[in-house]
Structures are given as structure tokens and as C-alpha cells.
Amino acid sequence: MQIETLFQYANDNNTRTKVEIQRAAQQLLGGLFGVICGSDDFAYIIQTNDFCQHRTANTTCYVFRSKMIY
């Protein structure tokens, strides 16, 4: 499954993780994606139809396709 492939990049370096997940999402799924990764609790508000959240060890990542409204 493509979503599982995205999270193979999750590691303890949140900066590297989010960059690699974003790159993979754009290549595999097309479109513009945002990625939020953190080791602690975080809150966010995003308008999107396509998203996924995954936790591995101490890192949680939220991936979403940008919803372009002009």
C-alpha cells in the first residue's frame, strides 16, 4: 500500500522525516502535500480531504494533501 510506504521514512530526526515523507507523497500520490511531525503533542487545523496520521515510537506525523482554494 502506498501510505505504508510513506512512513518507512519515519525516524527520530523530525526534520529529515517530514522532508522525506513529503517528497515520497508527492512522487507516489501526486499533488502538493504538507507534513507535520513531532515528538510531543501538537494541535492543528487543516482543510483537506486526503490525510493520514501515523505514530512510530516517539514520532507522530500527519500528512495532508493541500487543498488549493483561490
Automatic annotation (TrEMBL):
It holds the Pfam family Ground-like. It comes from the Eukaryota. Residues 11-64 form the Ground-like domain. This is Ground-like domain-containing protein.
